[in-house]
Amino acid sequence: MTHDAAASPILKLMNVGKSFRKQVVLKNIHLSVYPGEVTVILGPSGCGKSTLLRCLNGLEFINEGSIRFNELELTPKCPQWQAVRERIGMVFQSYHLFPHMKVIDNILLGPLKVQKRSKDDALAQAEELLERVGLLDKRDAYPRELSGGQQQRIAIVRALCMNPEVMLFDEVTAALDPEMVKEVLEVMLQLARQGMTMIIVTHEMGFARAVADRILFMDKGSIIEQGNPTSFFSEPQTDRAKRFLQQFYEIETWKGREVI
Amino acid sequence: MELLGLELLLQSMPQLVKGLIQTLMIACYSIIFSTIGGIVFGALQTIRLLWLNLLTRFYLELFRSIPILVWLFFVYFGLPLFFNVHLSSFACAVLVLSLWGITEIGEVARGAFQSIARGQSDAGRSIGLRTIQLYRYILFPQALRRMIPPSINVYTRIIKTTSLTVLIGVTEVVKAGQQIIERTGEAILIYGCLFFFYFLLCYPLSVLSRKLEKSII
């Protein structure tokens, strides 16, 4: 999907930098995300991709540069972080469902307490979303009774039920058994097809290629390469990206041991 | 002799029960104030603000390093002397035990809040909850469950510590017992009875705490 040139970006990062104490985690990040676009961020561990996501909804604050979300300038002192967060959904690696609440209450907490929507309206939407991810029968279960894949799908529904304009996914399949990875990725793929604006940090290369409109490759806190998935995966421009992709292909092509 | 002991016990019972009620009243008030204050105190300790942290730390250390008995004396004899504040011995007992209980329950609450994974706050904030709502809906309900067993242990300690209030003149169960002993000289019987009373109060709580600990974790 390509955005038309007239549309204005939903998120615009200019020269964003962040450091913890003296350690620089992000530097010179320039990025525009347009409505309906799916951006996948790849890169080695510790390159700052998760931190970048967390800066977008104020779970971390930036030290330099600026982030614009639609009409809002997001600064650390921005008083309306709550208002921003309810418009940006986030899904985490370890799901972080609220263990003391039933599935349905996990989903309804935001819509009812933050957005003050009517119970009927929110409940109807929650049930419809649960149906879509195939978990309507789990609405009264507690998170501990669910598998990892199910919990992660619930976490996605929890974020979706706020009707966010952007969804952030932070390595959402990294903690899952291989068999459950697929069910979560399918939900995300479906969401992308419906036109949701998504920013995804992942280590699933196949999925990245399938879902992305654009790939960003990060190393040591900077975006060092970006492009469409086809060209990124077939002919990466930087050595660092080449080496990174090499690791993945290599494991996939390992030969079996010879039986003597 | 056997009959005499039983008779004496029956005769002393009203006085002992009166003392026991006093003990329970002090303990109940102190437990209520400790619990409410302790939860707030524990939550305050998890907020990162330098002046607040120094203040809570100071308060905590005051009660950690100074014995309860000294506090009782200070409040009962010191307040009238230095600040011209006169409190009944009952009020002094509740005040000191509550202030101490707040630090104890506060530590339990702080531990409970801090044991909740950081991801819970992240998830709560990412759906737009304000700090108060985050504590109200996410952190507090989870912390409360973890707090119950260790809090009950603090409660039994508060009950036992009420016995110190004899020394500022509260007529609680130990004092009542001593009065009877002074009159009759039956130390073993009466102290045995006190022994039994305290055991009756604290043992069920101790069992409850152990049971809850198993069922929650």
UniProtKB/TrEMBL annotation, chain B:
This is Amino acid ABC transporter permease. It holds the Pfam family BPD_transp_1. Keywords: Cell membrane, Membrane, Transmembrane, Transmembrane helix, Transport. The chain crosses the membrane at residues 20-46, 58-79, 188-206. Belongs to the binding-protein-dependent transport system permease family. The lineage of its organism: Bacteria, Bacillati, Bacillota, Bacilli, Bacillales. It is a multi-pass membrane protein. PROSITE patterns: ABC_TM1.
